[in-house]
Amino acid sequence: MGDLPIVRFEEKIVETVKENPVVVVIGETGSGKSTQLPRILYRRGYAKSGIIAVTQPRRVAAVSVSRRVAQEQNVRIGEEVGYAIRFEDRTSEKTRIKYLTDGVLLRESLFNPELNQYSVIILDEAHERSLNTDILLGLMKRLIKWRHSNLKVLITSATLDGGKVSRFFSDCPVLTVPGELFPVEIVHISEPPKSYVEASLKKAIDIHVREPEGDILIFMTGQDDIEKLVLKLEERVQSLEEGSCMDALILPLHGSLPPEMQVRVFSPPPPNCRRFIVSTNIAETSLTVDGVVYVIDSGYVKQRQYNPSTGMYSLEVVQISKVQAKQRAGRAGRTRPGKCYRLYPSTVYHDDFLDATVPEIQRSSLAGTVLYLKSLDLADMDILKFDFLDSPSVKSLEDALKQLYLVDALDENGSITSLGRKMAELPLEPSLSRTLLEANELDCLSQALTVVSMLSSETTLLPAPSKSSEKKRRHTPLNLPDGFGLGDHIQLLQIYEQWYQTDYNIDWCKENNLQVRGMLFVRDVRKQLSQIMQKITEGSLDVQTSNRRRGGQQEYKNLRKALCIGYANQLAERMIRHNGYRPLGFKSELVQVHPSSVLKSDEDGMLPNYVVYHELIVTSRPFMRNVCAVEMRWVAPILAKLEKLNVFKLSGGSSQPDNQIQEVALTVEKKEIAAVQPPEDRASMIQAARERFLARKGQK
Ligand code: CDP
Ligand code: MG
């Protein structure tokens, strides 16, 4: 690895780090920032007084880069070199270089605000502008003041505007490591294609047939596209005349791939074989695949976007930014001159693409982050004034405060409650940590732990889709339970309980089309969460015994109540006159229960008046995903709280609000009140009765 650009700058880097508490290192992707920087500092003795931490925004990168470095250092993973991601800690006493997700480092700072175990903290991939890395940037600024004599902070990035970060850290030095990229010829398509999957297919085969050797990297937007394109490529490659061109190896690359599939892209290809790597934007900067000469850039990326006014998420395929397009093209010139085919006209690139990607902090729900900041107990902590590299919108901070207030994590003055502190200790979103704590009170913790663990291991939620059809699952396979029609959380619980009854039998998972790896992960997560709960509640719970108990009707009911309290900000009321639900507390349009839900209407054909939902997501229409029926008497206290809501007070602002803000707070309040009238008024009751009558009639 002696030839990586970063290694040639070793002296300069070490010298600068020695003289400065904070250093920004900018270097092309693949220049060795993630793998070599910590090794250099390790060689130079920086791991003697503490551990060298390297954060990664992506779990996959933390795992794969640490494995690579362990290999280079000739040690086993988990010993001198290890990694820690949520629910998976592969470090030990011996660990000197620790890769961890930025989220894990944030959590660690909650328990140890000075992060004393670390002598060096490298915030890697800062250009990704992940929410957690952005928060860490703000925290490092404080930390450096406390620990200026024994902490080094490095911020590394492929493309970041170094000047901006440098100014943020009182003009710290910026080291630029020149990459040695070969020229990349950029070819734009003249007309935007109808389908970028088809266009990529055509281009890839074209390259394969006509161009000299070299791997092809294709940027798609997500797992669906990737699977589709991989299938098509396989088909097409097979139909090529034998011997007409070299062999082909087609490899998908995305975050939900099992680890053994992910590492395949790093092993060298067999001789006389061209690799097609079909990837998400993970290969843009966080993972470098050697041997790529051709890049096909769809010009799109799938982005999760949160709208604080409506409480809705959307998973949208959006245009990439100019910075991203340049990164993608750069991947073609690592080993020799390459070519990048852009599946969009150059006018689109120039006129439509944003210069840089919108940072995650400006498109995420901030409830977890705000709870975290509040629980740090920093002096002068007015959340609305935290020192961010780029500030989130006031609207989204207010949304977060509102949610935290509704789940009792903050009191009406915006101070964190003792409940809120306990919630912050759980590595979960606030709604789920609140559910666990309530469940503990209601004596159904064991059940709630199961549900929360199932929800936290997303990959297992749905039975693996069958190959033949991509259709949404409307009915559960016959042998899986149906949640008594009360909702998806109950079903998740029942599935796990059935598995438990088989003594965690792996064949049972396979028979029921559940991912084995995922289910084992759920079991592991559940164990970890129950340990944390033991700690938080000072051992006052007996999870082990309750684990042996089958959920009785009372426990299901208590569980639903706990969910109702945890999801207080994710509550929807059925609109009797319209076909749909209205999410309470938001300016939302009507939403529907997702077709995959097991929620059922009652014997009168009516869906429940109130449900809580895990997520509101806009796909073709706005849907609630993972819903659970709740009862009016549990809902009433939440409605009352909504009425009292004053966002300005919640933010911790102590001075008199200026008029404008006050006005905003008041209008929000009025709208909330208007939104929370329960459907129990006379007119709608009559209407409801009529609907029920008609529904009954329709059944006969
Ligand atoms: O972080 P940066 O993009 O600057 O580069 P890096 O991730 O440190 O990668 C440096 C070199 O190590 C590249 O040539 C990668 O191909 C290689 N590498 C690898 O072979 N396997 C990994 N899991 C990670 C890096
Ligand atoms: Mg890197």
TrEMBL record:
Catalytic activity field = ATP + H2O = ADP + phosphate + H(+)
Q: Which CDD domains match?
A: SF2_C_RHA
Q: Which UniProt keywords apply?
A: ATP-binding, Helicase, Hydrolase, Nucleotide-binding
In this chain the Helicase C-terminal domain maps to 200-377
Q: Which GO terms describe its molecular function?
A: helicase activity
Residue stretches making up the Helicase ATP-binding domain = 14-178
Q: Which SUPFAM superfamilies match?
A: P-loop containing nucleoside triphosphate hydrolases (SSF52540)
- Output the superkingdom of the source species: Eukaryota
- For this protein, what is the EC number? 3.6.4.13
Judged by the first EC level, this protein's enzyme class is hydrolase
- What this protein is called in its record is RNA helicase
Q: What species is this protein from?
A: Solanum pennellii
Q: Lineage from the top down? A: Eukaryota, Viridiplantae, Streptophyta, Embryophyta, Tracheophyta
